[in-house]
Amino acid sequence: MSFILTLIGTMVPLDLLCAWWSLSILPSHALRWCVGIFIGLQLAGLLAIIAGRINETDFDRLLPKFFVSSVFIWHFITLGVLLSIAIVALPGLGVRFAARKLRHDERTGLSAPHNNWTRRDFLRAAAATAPPLFTIGLTSIALTQLSHFRVRRFVLPIPGLPPELENATIAHVSDMHVGRFTSGRVLEKMVATVNDLHADLVLLTGDLINDALVDLADGIALVRQMQARYGLFLIEGNHDLIENPSEFETRMRGSGIPFLLDESAIVDLRGAPVQLLGLSWTRTHGQGRDAAISAAVRRLLEQRDKNAFPILLAHHPHAFDAAAEANLPLTLSGHTHGGQLMLNEQLGFGPALFRYWSGHYVRGASQLIVSNGVGNWYPLRVHAPAELVHITLRSTI
Question: 348: Cβ–Cβ under 8 A, 6 or more apart, which residues?
Answer without folding.
Answer: 339, 340, 341, 342, 382, 383, 384
